[in-house]
Design goal:
Order of helices and strands of chain B: EEEEEEEEEEE
Structural class of chain A: mainly beta
Radius of gyration of chain A: 15 Å
Structural class of chain B: mainly beta
Strand content of chain A: over 45%
Radius of gyration of chain B: 13 Å
Strand content of chain B: over 45%
Largest sheet of chain A: 7 strands, mixed
Shape of chain A: globular
Number of helices of chain B: 0
Distance between the termini of chain B: 38 Å
Oligomer: heterodimer
Number of strands of chain B: 11
Distance between the termini of chain A: 36 Å
Shape of chain B: globular
Helix content of chain B: under 10%
Largest sheet of chain B: 6 strands, mixed
Amino acid sequence: NAGVTQTPKFRVLKTGQSMTLLCAQDMNHEYMYWYRQDPGMGLRLIHYSVGEGTTAKGEVPDGYNVSRLKKQNFLLGLESAAPSQTSVYFCASSRPGSKRPSTSGQARPLETQYFGPGTRLLVL
Amino acid sequence: DQQVKQNSPSLSVQEGRISILNCDYTNSMFDYFLWYKKYPAEGPTFLISISSIKDKNEDGRFTVFLNKSAKHLSLHIVPSQPGDSAVYFCAAMPRTSGSRLTFGEGTQLTVNP
């Protein structure tokens, strides 16, 4: 059980080049997410998916596209990379969340997101 | 605007002492709060959570406190250990968004031996 894996771990791009980041999960999770992490800004949601064949925009979607052709995979594409896209990218997956607050004392809610190890991208 | 804010970028404590990490939020729709821990070159991992119907949740050395009227939560680690040195992210989830999380900026905790 590998959890969430990301490919590649590190990549250097020139401005204008394109690339695809691959995320795979083996936990049969419905929901998948792509975040970027920048110094002093925490994790910001780029795009997410609530099921196979569906995607939606997050907080910072400009310059990125995504696809979810298979339940276990979530791809993040950069069509024309820019230096502002230099960042660490994290993929995550989770089960669907409940619409009501949890009343149980469970330590780990169903909605807990599981993260991959990250992809470090440098755009020159 | 930053809906979840961690005002302290870093915190340094001695081994054995208490670590207190703070988080403030502005969105009244948030009803579930989580803390994630992140080591260098790894992805964040879930640490502890709390529902808005509770004001305290404890798991071993980790306790999260929620003050809804002040829109403030804190993570207490007692006793702190050198292995706790990591970046801690506070995150919040509104009931209407399913599993979408909004993260704070993170606080780098260093526990000195």
